[in-house]
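Check out one such.
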Amino acid sequence: MANDREVLREIWDGKLPVCFQLDQEEIMEIQQPDPFYVMVPRLSYFPLVIDKMKRHFLRYISQENADNEMWMDYNGQPLKWHYPIGFLYDLYCGNDPQTPWTLTVHFSKFPGNILLHCPNKDVVEAHYMSTVKEADVLKHRGQIMSAMQKKDHNQLWLGLQNDKFDQFWAINRRLMESHGDNDGFKHIPIRIYAEDGTCTQRLISPKNIDGSRKIIQQLITELFKKCDFSVKLRTHGITIPLDTPLQWLSEHLSYPDNFLHICVC
């Protein structure tokens, strides 16, 4: 892995300004609640950053809804909490960026047919660690996570949860690096999403048959069978140059779950 700590740090420090507004139908007080503004890490998950926002709105809703599971939508589209925040923004606002990102908060009518339930942060941790293990199987045949101790897994999670770059990367660098025979990863952990949120996940090799490194241009041809390259791919708010090697992307621009989350644009 290229020792490009500056790239990793720039990605880690990425933030989004978000404006949360309570659903008008749920307001029970005469006084309207002020919107809640906050800067959130692109790499995090909504359940990890909304505690203060939830407390801000609780006094304005019916007490019978106070213990309900909170959820959010953007323009009527429920937001899946198990997707990274930055990815969700790229998916729904990538072609028409807006700041702050205005979201509507709900305490009733949970769309269980669309969203996974998330009663506490332990659910987020379980989902996150499961995804990291899946990525490790694709990249390293599962050898890195299985060799780690429980304290390493805890440090990885706490680094992400508490937004501690050094704590997180002291462990995650093992998962991001190539190992062994210098052939790079076995496969690239990559999920590509259409504008409707439909996800494509396939076994993507980082190298071509002749041993050369596969680039984004070749990935587009492989997935979409287009030779005019009208399909563009976006991650972390940027359109990926066609000559970018997939392995470099995986090592530098993966989300903390070690997947590349890429939007078609």
Observations:
- The chain has nine helices and ten strands.
- The CA atoms of residues 33 and 60 lie 7 Å apart.
- The beta strands are 15-22, 36-41, 71-74, 77-78, 101-106, 190-193, 199-200, 233-235, 238-239, 260-264.
